[in-house]
Amino acid sequence: MINDKKVLFSGMQATGNLTLGNYLGALKNWVTLSDEYECFYSVVDMHSITVRQNPAELRKRARALLTLYIAAGLDPEKNCIYYQSHVSGHAELAWILNCFTYMGELNRMTQFKDKAAKHADNINAGLFTYPVLMAADILLYQADVVPVGIDQMQHLELTRDIAIRFNNIYGDVFTVPEAYIGKVGAKIMSLQDPAKKMSKSDENPNASIYLMDDTDTILRKCKRAVTDSLGEIRYCEEQPGIRNLIDIYSACTGKAPQETVKEFEGRGYGEFKQAVGEAVVSVLKPLQDRVHQLEKDKAYIDSVIKNNADKASYFAGKTLRKVQKKVGFPERIRG
Ligand code: TRP
């Protein structure tokens, strides 16, 4: 608890261009959670170097992501928006937690297996212990809830196991976090293959709408979205392409999927796709404008970065000192 509020932690990586799926499925919901919880939203740049990055590019993307958090409506006075690498407690706690995590547990992580297959030339120890760093992120702030997608559930389960294990040995040190399962969240699928999630790492640029795509590109991608030959706008399993477009339209307009179906009853796919594209533009254009506006104010962004790193360090330090003492590190001599 901080200020009588439950604590929420989440983070995103600044690798790849964020998509409409990241926005509608995660970022947009983060904004609605910020009243109810004391929120920490991190740009997890330490996780990013588990695969090789171009340094200048990573720095640029990390700043763009942090700016996007604010542009999306997260008030940096109320939400702690910061770079993971600015708070050394993440690395320090991760080391300690490494000593409470079993090889067998990490070996079972499906994301490690996937990434190891994809980056066969660089299967580094950081990639293997990635979930331990994630556990440190969460436990460092005594988070009660963690909004995560289904792909991160296994990591969250492991975080809980590590916390419980540690608490069993040393007493109640960590809050055991719960997954935050939002209201039927918008799970946005690829425009080219509606069986796959819309992903920032998709090789086909037409599969994803990127948050910074211009209007023409957005309209074109929607127009090219894969549908079917049934010619009817219905919200059903048999029409995954159309269903995805209904989800996108509904998430952008705030309408329920059934309302959307009614609205487009008897109309053609072409007309519907155009409307979907326009709905997406109506959401992304103002977001892009805010990003551009904020980018101009370098001093403001810098002050957010500094103040929130200090704030995060304060809370991280409290947990870290407790943990260090529990495991037997000598107390520091001050003064
Ligand atoms: N691993 C997460 C992802 O790739 C990002 C992340 C890092 C995270 N630390 C976290 C998410 C802590 C939630 C909580 O999506």
UniProtKB/TrEMBL annotation:
Protein name: Tryptophan--tRNA ligase
Catalytic activity: tRNA(Trp) + L-tryptophan + ATP = L-tryptophyl-tRNA(Trp) + AMP + diphosphate + H(+)
Keyword Cell membrane tagged: no
InterPro entries per record: aa-tRNA-synth_Ic, Rossmann-like_a/b/a_fold, Trp-tRNA-ligase, Trp-tRNA-ligase_bac-type, Trp-tRNA_synthetase
Organism: Candidatus Egerieimonas intestinavium
Amino acids binding ATP: 13-15, 21-22, 149-151, 188, 197-201
Cross-referenced SUPFAM superfamilies: Nucleotidylyl transferase
Pfam family, one: tRNA-synt_1b
Motif interval(s): 'HIGH' region: 14-22
GO BP: tryptophanyl-tRNA aminoacylation
Residues given in the record as L-tryptophan binding sites: 137
Any one annotated GO CC term: cytosol
CDD domains named among the record's database cross-references: TrpRS_core
Localization, UniProt: Cytoplasm
Chain location of the short sequence motif 'KMSKS' region per the record: 197-201
Claim: Ligase is one of the keywords in the record: yes
Position of the signal peptide: none
Keywords annotated in UniProt: Aminoacyl-tRNA synthetase, ATP-binding, Cytoplasm, Ligase, Nucleotide-binding, Protein biosynthesis
GO molecular function: ATP binding; tryptophan-tRNA ligase activity
EC number(s) recorded for this UniProt protein: 6.1.1.2
Function: Catalyzes the attachment of tryptophan to tRNA(Trp).
Lineage of origin: Bacteria, Bacillati, Bacillota, Clostridia, Lachnospirales
Assigned protein family: Belongs to the class-I aminoacyl-tRNA synthetase family.
